[in-house]
Specification:
- This protein has 2 domains: 55 residues, Orthogonal Bundle (Arc Repressor Mutant, subunit A), CATH 1.10.10.10; 181 residues, 3-Layer(aba) Sandwich (Rossmann fold), CATH 3.40.50.
- Helices cover 40% and strands 22% of the residues.
- Strand 14, helix 10 and strand 15 form a beta-alpha-beta unit.
- Helix 8 packs parallel to helix 9.
- It is globular and about 55 Å long.
- One of its GO terms (molecular function) is DNA-binding transcription factor activity.
- It holds the Pfam family DeoRC.
- InterPro entries: Carb_Metab_HTH_regulators, DeoR-like_C, DeoR_HTH, NagB/RpiA_transferase-like, Tscrpt_reg_HTH_DeoR_CS, WH-like_DNA-bd_sf, WH_DNA-bd_sf.
- Keywords: DNA-binding, Transcription, Transcription regulation.
Length: 249
């Protein structure tokens, strides 16, 4: 088993148990102490775990993201405003990715261009049905709370696509970059960003300087941030250094 595969499995184990010892990791994957140590270093460096005495634990999420259906009703006016504005960056014939996000779902509802659309979100798929162009739902395992598909099948399908533009959501935006709550969600967003010619993050201003567990990308991978308020100074400076544009709607 490759290290990335073990990392994925260890994160899933942490979600169930909250805490893992070095010995448990060694036994679960039949690996040496040195290999387990390297895996732990990678997990800690990527913010996927924190060290404990003799093992690791799941990081504490300081701001839990509310259930998808509940989030849909929060700041709905701002979400619609952002979603409608994002339509300006879509041209006919483009290959577009629409991330799982209540704000991006609003974008999908108002989309009126003939594009080739890809998404892993059931709600986006519903919003896009009946629109012009083609809509493709990426395969994978279902995450029932936020209604999106994830896993190795999803990643493999993304690897075969080159997107003209990708619209990504965020649970938190800091000077360090874009963060989300779920590891699987972060993996999908990161892979999409690698495969997109233009990356547009769409998120309301409440996401600034929140805390969330899993980093998606730094601003060097973001071309444009659409938001509802001016970013904090530290975030703005990081964006300027990375060459990321920001538009307050």
């Amino acid at each position: 088993m490759f290290q990335e595969e073990r990392i994925y499995e260890i994160v899933n184990m942490l979600k169930d148990r909250r805490v893992l010892s070095n010995q448990e990791i060694m036994q679960a994957f039949q690996i040496s102490r040195d290999t387990a140590r390297r895996d732990i270093v990678k997990l800690v460096n990527e913010g996927l775990a924190i060290r404990t005495h003799g093992g690791i634990a799941l990081p504490v999420i300081q701001d839990e993201v509310k259930g998808y259906k509940k989030r849909l009703a929060i700041n709905s006016e701002a979400k619609i405003r952002l979603g409608k504005y994002a339509l300006k960056y879509i041209s006919p014939g483009q290959i577009c990715f629409f991330d799982v996000s209540t704000t991006i779902q609003a974008l999908c509802q108002y989309l009126d261009e003939n594009v080739l659309a890809f998404t892993h979100s059931l709600d986006n798929m519903e919003a896009l049905s009946g629109k012009q162009g083609e809509v493709h739902l990426l395969g994978g395992k279902l995450e029932p709370k936020d209604r999106y598909l994830y896993g190795s099948k999803t990643i493999l399908e993304i690897e075969d696509i080159r997107f003209d533009i990708a619209f990504l959501g965020a649970a938190a935006i800091t000077a360090d970059g874009i963060y989300v709550v779920d590891y699987e969600d972060a993996c999908i967003k990161r892979k999409v960003a690698e495969r997109a010619a233009f990356v547009c993050v769409v998120a309301d201003g409440a996401k600034f300087n929140k805390a969330s567990s899993f980093k998606v990308i730094s601003f060097g991978k973001v071309d444009l941030l659409l938001t509802t308020q001016e970013p904090p100074l530290a975030v703005k400076e990081s964006m300027k250094y990375a060459g990321t544009s920001v538009k307050v709607v």
